[in-house]
Amino acid sequence: MKRNAILIGLLAAACGGGNKQAVTTSDLGPSSSPSSPAQVEAATRPADPNFGFRKQYENPGGMWMPAQMTLPQHVDTFKKMGVPMSAEVLSDPLSHPLAAIVSLGGCTASFVSPDGLIVTNHHCVQGSLLYNSSKGGGKNPGEKPAVNLVENGFLAKTRGEEILASPSQRVMVVQSYKDITKEMRDGLDKIKDPIKRKDESEKRYKQQIAACEKDRPWLRCSVSGFFRGGQYQLIEMLEIKDVRLVYVPHRAVGNYGGEIDNWAWPRHTGDFAFYRAYVGKDGKPAEHSPDNIPFKPQHWLKVTTAGLKSGDFVMVTGYPGMTSRTETASEIQHDVEWFLPYYIQFMEEKYKLAESHLGDNSDTAVKATTMKQSVQNGIEKYQGILEGLKKSDILERKADLDKRVKEWAAQPGNEAHKAAIEKQEQILAAKFRTARVDFEQKYTFGGSKLLTTSLSLTRWAEERTKKDMDRKPGYQERDLPRATAGAKSFARLFDRTLDRESFRMQLLRATQLPEADRPWLAALLDVKKGTKIDEALIDKTLDGWYKATTLEDEKLRIELLTKGTTKQIKASKDPFIKAAQRIWATYKAVEKKDDAKAGELLLVTPSYVEGMKAVLGGALAPDANGTLRITYGTVKSFKPDSKSADDWAFTTASQILPKNSGKEPFDAPAKQTALITSKKFGPYADLALGGDLPIDFLSDLDITGGNSGSPTLNDKGELVGLAFDGTKEGLASDVLFNTKTTRTIHVDARYMIWQMDAVDGADHLVKEMGLQPQL
Fold first, then answer.
1. DSSP assignment, residue 758?
2. Less crowded by CB within 10 Å, the N or C end of the chain?
3. pLDDT the model gives residue 618
């Protein structure tokens, strides 16, 4: 024990006094003991009556709705873990800390200052970096120099230097929740025609939104379904339209390790970035303007550098996108046998395409790099899900759960549920039979941004002739500002070379279908039925289309979007718009078929989930659907008792040096590596890690896509990090949670603040978050 006390003193002196938190022998890490941190802590940790429970805790998983946090299981677990706040505090999404969490549309973020400063992941702002990058060159008079923010990052030293993220970027702030299950479901079973039933559900959806948004243009309301249509909520959100880029570290920090380290541990990635929300002078959302002022949120998170240790309580709140835990065994079996292998092969083709253009001119290369990163992320995710389903017992567990649900449905009194579940299986079997043809048709019609734009313009023109409440969702007047913003972002994000090659790839894939299964392909390419469609014909056709298209003209696109008529669309000479007209009847026929299927499923899918609830004792979190959720657990590695540094719950800055080759993706900035070499970590160092700087850490939390950027909170509700990834071993938990294999990777707040303070000179932002720069 004396040796440990001496080491504490030496370490404190070496790092300038160390953290101001209490230091004990339990803080000693890998450099001070041959034992693992967990073994040292078990022997020397300060009195903590709840540590034993947290250490043995096996997370059962669950992305819980706020209202579910009053369930006895959560209240009891929080008490046993020694969490100061009650789980019931998290049942109110309009109070702290949940009210500080916002959606970016595909990612999560949180307010961290009273002046609208928002923190999220580095990879969540790639679209904004791309939008604000330019090829330039600066060689000719008046020509701006090239700007590559994707590579170099960005820092606004003043608020006047903060730049528009993109016209389409939004920050969504929840204002209220209301259960509308009765309004959405009552009487649907009396409508016999499935298409009319689907239409009635859609009508109710639009009515709820219209009433919610009436005379309140600053709100964006949505209707979200839970438990596969068994429950519905009306959600009001403030839609902030002026979102500005504030600070993003260099690519070699924010994406350190790149594709090699993706979905892997150990990790040394600084995946964080900052936006700011701006509103009009009246405090309400407004279009981008230099006159706008920073938004003043009612709630924001306190950022702390106090840090965490293995076994500590943590939780993540955010907007997870999609899981499939309430799907049937047959759906999961279909994914394993057909969909996942097929989709992975499709993505691998896209990856090779993007990779082949990395050496093109700077503009295409930048966009190809972003595309490659996105596709690679998807490939590894779905490979991980497939491998996890094959190698684990998840399929057996899912089959057993499916069997229990059907046994429940067979019990007296559950006859209606039994019939519904049988009907669901029939609908699914029909869907599986046409899966390949449906896939190739969908991805061909979506194969070019110019074609999807043409289809969208055709739809807008058609819907514009109807009364607003009779239009399809997504094409009402409320949707036009978003569509216009997207049209304005189009030019910065579009690349003709990549678009043509992506479309070509998909057309060639479609030719592999039997001709009888793809009559739409001849119509799309404007050739007679029976014509041999080969590579030469496709190349000749695309050469002509891309040469003649006018859709890259922003003024024209917006004119057709906002005022275009069906007559104008049909008279257009643009080859992509003409192609859209040729497949429009097929497009609508597919839509009608899908509507009939959706109308059938409206009545039957809730029964299967009711059965799941029954056999699981009522404690079932609904599948992720882009709405606010809470997941909690502990800081935990795969092997807490291992003596190998690769198995510990934290990575450190010193581990970057031997890993750093100087070549992408292991090419940390020179200033950063110099500070790491000299161990200038100041108060951000952690004595439990031998006086080193923590970079990333692991937990046993349950997250998925959409959780990116979610704040990681300690037991006081303070921000201690950001969730940014999972490990490949646990990806199959999207289907059925596996506590043994599932881990979430977080960037540590101490690394974030150190990078801002010591490396990038973002002291003003550190101060804005209520902290004092130390280096």
1. I
2. N
3. 87
Burial (Cβ within 10 Å: 0-12, 13-18, ≥19) of residue 519: exposed
Q: What phi and psi, each to the nearest 5 degrees, are found at residue 100?
A: -85, -5
C-alpha span between 283 and 318 (Å, rounded): 25
Q: Active-site residue 122, yes or no? A: no
What gap in Å lies between CA 548 and CA 551, rounded to an integer?
9
* Structure-block tokens of residue 334: 């279909």
- Residue of 36, 91, 113, 123 with catalytic role: 123
Amino acid identity of 93? P
Q: What is the pLDDT of residue 100?
A: 98
Write out the two tokens for 44.
């020397």
Q: Is the pTM higher than 0.90? A: yes
Instruction: Kindly indicate the confidence band of residue 644, based on its pLDDT and cuts at 50, 70 and 90.
Output: confident
- 123 tagged catalytic: yes
What does the alpha-carbon distance between residue 206 and residue 253 come to, in Å, rounded to a whole number?
44
Where does the pLDDT of residue 643 fall: very low under 50, low under 70, confident under 90, or very high at 90 and above? confident
∠ CA 254-690-18, rounded to 5° = 85
Percentage of the chain modeled with pLDDT above 90: 90
Query: In the predicted model, what is the mean pLDDT of the chain?
Result: 93
Q: Concatenate the DSSP letters of all residues of 365-405 into one string.
A: HHHHHHHHHHHHHHHHHHHHHHHHHHHSSHHHHHHHHHHHH
How many of the other CB atoms lie within 10 Å of CB of 284? Answer: 14
Find the catalytic residue in 242, 261, 271, 335: 271
pLDDT number for residue 326: 98
What's the mean pLDDT in 724-745? 97
Place of tokens 């009273």: 114
User: Which pair of structure tokens corresponds to residue 497?
Assistant: 């070379």
Is a pLDDT exceeding 70 seen at residue 752? yes
The total of other beta-carbon atoms located within 10 Å of residue 625's CB is: 17
What are the tens digits of pLDDT across the range 345-404? 999 999 999 999 999 987 899 999 999 999 999 999 999 999 999 999 999 999 999 999
pLDDT digits (tens, 9 = 90+) for 290-300: 999 999 999 99
Burial 411-433 (b: 16+ CB within 10 A, else e): eeebeebbebbebbbebbeeebe
Give the separation between CA 462 and CA 475, rounded to whole angstroms. Answer: 10
Among the listed residues 91, 201, 310, 708, the single catalytic one is 708
Question: What's the rounded Cα separation, in Å, for the pair 567 and 206?
Answer: 27
Beta strands in 638-710 (DSSP E): 650-652, 694-699
Q: Which amino acid is at 7?
A: L
Based on DSSP, count helices (H) and strands (E) in the chain, helices before strands.
28, 18
Among residues 320, 315, 417, the alpha carbon closest in space to that of 714 is found at 315
Instruction: Let me know if 39 is exposed, middle or buried by CB neighbors in 10 A (0-12, 13-18, 19+).
Output: middle
pLDDT greater than 70 at residue 12: no
Of 386, 260, 286, nearest to 333 (Cα)? Answer: 386
- Whether 416 has a pLDDT exceeding 60, the answer reads yes
In percent, the amount of the chain with pLDDT more than 70 equals 93
Residue 141 has pLDDT above 80, yes or no: no
Spatial distance between the Cα atoms of 459 and 583, rounded to a whole number of angstroms: 12
- As a whole number of angstroms, the distance between CA 51 and CA 312 comes to 8
Q: 487: phi > 0 → left, psi -120 to 50 → alpha, else beta; which?
A: alpha
